[in-house]
Design brief:
7-stranded mixed beta sheet; Glycerol-3-phosphate (1)-acyltransferase; 264 residues; alpha/beta; globular
Length: 264
């Protein structure tokens, strides 16, 4: 009797695994043949519209609108759902630095659609050399920084801080690049040096589920539920560069407090 039950259970498990595998490969095929090609199309069209509009809008509002529409198209096409918690903690009239974990390339469109403020990204300078993306970043007022050489990096963060002080809210990923493990990676000090030099509050953001809908280094965009958790702002007034490590630890603690590691 026990043997019969085990046999039935094993067969059921194998059947379920086979169905999951079939769904996975169908999803992968849909992504490669349909979703990714549409994303490339959206990027070309919205990038072109952004560049054309930048000739008439020096404030970047048109470009930000194009980026939000591009992002909305990607999320809808990919079937990516987003729940947001903590929007009431964001003052749309205040200059802020948003610091988020970075599990996936989908983090960028999710933040564009769901953060209720005009903002710019602080991104590595190499991205500004790419066709369409780089042109959009430069014409939209996004801020390049050097990461490889310490002297140039420090100078670029000082320049970025000056732009933040002019009233530009920015989004940074303190890990520096997407996590390849699903865990929260180490934070780079430059993010918090910038925050202290700019003297504006830091808003930690926890992103969950984005690695599931798009795992780094793959072409597979999957539908699914993601989560954005906006934590209370952390003031930087009165801090000095000696407080970089303690500010980094506070932001990391907030992000980790709601972080759900993912291996998928």
């Amino acid at each position: 009797m026990t043997s019969d039950v085990e046999t039935v259970s094993t067969i059921a498990a194998k059947k379920a695994a086979g169905e999951d595998g079939l769904r996975y490969y169908l999803s992968y095929a849909r992504s490669v043949l349909f979703t990714n090609n549409l994303i490339y199309l959206y990027t070309a069209l919205c990038g072109t519209a952004s560049l054309c509009g930048s000739l008439f809008d020096s404030q970047g509002r048109w470009q930000h609108g194009c980026a939000r529409f591009w992002s909305w198209l990607i999320l809808k096409t990919g079937g990516i759902r987003v729940s947001v918690e903590g929007l009431e903690r964001v003052n749309p009239h205040e200059t802020l630095i948003f610091c988020a974990n970075h599990p996936s390339a989908m983090d960028i469109p999710i933040l564009f659609v769901h953060l209720p403020v005009q903002f710019r990204f602080v991104a590595k300078r190499e991205l500004f050399a790419l066709p369409f993306l780089g042109w959009h970043l430069r014409r939209s007022g996004h801020i390049p920084v050097d990461r490889g050489r310490p002297r140039e990096a420090l100078k670029s963060f000082d320049q970025a801080a000056a732009k933040v002080q002019e009233g530009r809210s920015v989004v940074l990923f303190p890990e520096g690049s997407r996590s390849r493990t699903g865990e929260l990676g180490p934070f780079k000090a430059g993010t918090f040096y910038l925050a202290i030099r700019a003297g504006v509050p830091v808003v930690p953001i926890t992103l969950n589920g984005t690695r599931h809908v798009h795992k780094p280094d793959t072409l597979h965009v999957r539908s699914g539920q993601t989560e954005v958790i906006i934590h209370a702002p952390i003031p930087t007034a009165g801090l000095t560069v000696d407080d970089v490590d303690s500010l980094s630890a506070r932001v990391r603690e907030k992000i980790l407090s709601r972080f759900a590691p993912s291996s998928g």
